[in-house]
Amino acid sequence: MAKLFGNLHLVLAIGLVAAIAVMLGFGAEVPVDVNSVFRWLHVFFGILWIGLLYYLNFVQVPTMPSIPAEQKGAITGHIAPKVFFFFRWAALLTVVTGLVIAYVTGYVHRALIFKGLNLHENLIGLGMDLALIMAFNVWFIIWPAQKKILGIVEASAEEKAAAAPRALIASRTNLLLSLPMLYCMVSANLG
């Protein structure tokens, strides 16, 4: 058992096979189509993205000042680069799968410009717009700053110092926006 659960890729593959088995097992009652598959992927990637956003804001960032200098390299050299890899790709895949859902169901344009046919489309549109802002922050503010902070790209001490508050502000903005965004996404699907 330890060998199985010690292999992340194997666990993910088995989870994927189990999900497909559930889809096929309930396929007669619950349609398995582009919309349902992309909704499932959207939720998965969204949980990964927002989970890492919360990990960074609630755990890693507040804890870093109390970590002894000789131990910080374990975080900045090994853990943080992996976190930011999954963080940025989960952000992108959450947005892409969400846009596919909105396109397939025919409301993408109306929702994005708040011209929905009903309250649900306007509410999901607000959630989509907030998520787009958040994804922009991840890819164009947080990630470029973190590459400097973590030493992934060459940066002077001054550039690293300037990148830190920029990354923090963008990350905390995403934390702030995540709360109304999650409300919009959940509530738009209740009616």
Task: Give the structure's gist in a few sentences.
This protein is mainly alpha-helical and about 190 residues long.
Overview of the molecule:
The protein has 191 residues and is mainly α. The chain folds into 2 domains: 1-32; 33-188. The protein is built from 7 helices and no strands. The chain has helices at 2-5, 8-25, 34-63, 69-104, 108-112, 119-149, 157-188. Helix 3 (34-63) packs antiparallel against helix 4 (69-104) and helix 4 packs antiparallel against helix 6 (119-149). The N and C termini lie far apart (43 Å). The model has no long low-confidence stretch (mean pLDDT 95).
Structural class by sheet pairing and helices: mainly alpha
Q: How many beta strands in the DSSP annotation?
A: 0
Mean pLDDT: 95
Number of domains: 2
User: Are there runs of 5+ residues with pLDDT below 50, and where?
Assistant: none
**Which range does the strand content fall in?**
under 5%
Shape: flat
Radius of gyration: 19 Å
Oligomer: single chain
> Major β-sheet, in short?
none
State the end-to-end CA separation.
43 Å
- The run of helices and strands is HHHHHHH
The helix content is over 70%
The number of helical segments is 7
